[in-house]
């Protein structure tokens, strides 16, 4: 018997080894109710160095860690459970892998399989635009030179079907709200 009830869809959120905007993004994750988190090995290192891992662990979110070569947790994308895949913050290394079809860790596999399932991706690249400043784990603001190759890879990714790029945590929050209202 069908009740007509449709379970709420989840967000699948991938975290790479980037610290840029990380604290603000963790705040957004903590505020979400229906999310699974996929953390690469580098993401785990960065979350730990910024002392944010415990904050994520304290949520009710299911957290998947990159601990095997097969990235089995991404097979849950094929169940229809996820409304959107978010990868934020996204390193230049991960962007380069994405645009070249390399899926060799949990987060790049998440991206690749989301595309195969036609699940929209929202990506927040760290190295977009011109020179930026970022906070180190100890709170020091440092300048970051954005290389031409990184900008070009982001530009290439911007044309992919099903991929939306955002520039900052506020724009990401608006994109999340819009995706979940569908």
SSE order and pairing:
Elements: E1 10-15, H1 22-31, E2 35-39, H2 41-49, H3 53-57, E3 62-65, E4 82-90, H4 92-99, H5 106-117, E5 121-125, E6 132-135, E7 141-144, H6 148-158, E8 163-165, H7 169-181
Parallel strand pairs: 1-2, 1-4, 2-3, 4-5, 5-8
Antiparallel strand pairs: 6-7
Helix pairs in contact: 4-6
Protein model, in words:
This protein is an alpha/beta fold and 182 residues long. 37% of the residues lie in helices and 22% in strands. The protein contains 7 helices and 8 strands; from the N terminus they run βαβααββααβββαβα. The protein has helices at residues 22-31, 41-49, 53-57, 92-99, 106-117, 148-158, 169-181, and strands at 10-15, 35-39, 62-65, 82-90, 121-125, 132-135, 141-144, 163-165. Strands 3-2-1-4-5-8 form a 6-stranded parallel beta sheet, sandwiched between helices. The protein has a two-stranded antiparallel ribbon with strand order 6-7. Helix 1 (22-31) links the parallel strand 1 and strand 2. Helix 4 packs across helix 6. The model is unreliable at 1-5 (pLDDT under 50).
Query: What's the order of the H and E elements?
Result: EHEHHEEHHEEEHEH
Helix content: 25-40%
Specify the number of helices: 7
The major sheet is characterized as: 6 strands, parallel
What is the total tally of β strands?
8
Distance between the ends: 26 Å
Mean pLDDT over the residues: 89
What spatial form do the alpha-carbon principal axes imply? globular
Strand content: 15-25%
Class inferred from helices and paired strands? alpha/beta
Salient structural properties:
182 residues, alpha/beta, six-stranded parallel beta sheet, 7 helices, 8 strands, disordered N terminus
């Amino acid at each position: 018997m069908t009740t007509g009830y449709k379970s709420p869809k989840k967000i699948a959120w991938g975290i790479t080894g980037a610290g840029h905007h990380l604290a603000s993004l963790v705040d957004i994750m903590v505020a979400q109710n229906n999310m699974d988190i996929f953390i690469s090995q580098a993401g785990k290192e960065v979350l730990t160095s910024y002392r944010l891992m415990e904050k994520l662990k304290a949520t009710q979110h299911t957290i998947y860690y990159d601990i095997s070569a097969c990235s089995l947790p991404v097979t849950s994308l094929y169940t229809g459970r996820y409304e959107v895949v978010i990868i934020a913050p996204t390193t230049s290394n991960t962007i380069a892998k994405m645009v070249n079809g390399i899926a060799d860790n949990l987060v790049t596999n998440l991206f690749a399989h989301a595309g195969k399932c036609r699940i929209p991706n929202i990506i927040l690249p760290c190295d977009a635009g011109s020179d930026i400043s970022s906070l180190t784990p100890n709170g020091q603001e440092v300048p970051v030179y954005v290389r031409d190759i990184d900008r070009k890879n982001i530009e290439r990714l911007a044309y992919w079907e099903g991929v939306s790029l955002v520039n900052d945590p506020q724009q990401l929050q608006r994109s999340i709200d819009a995706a979940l209202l569908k």
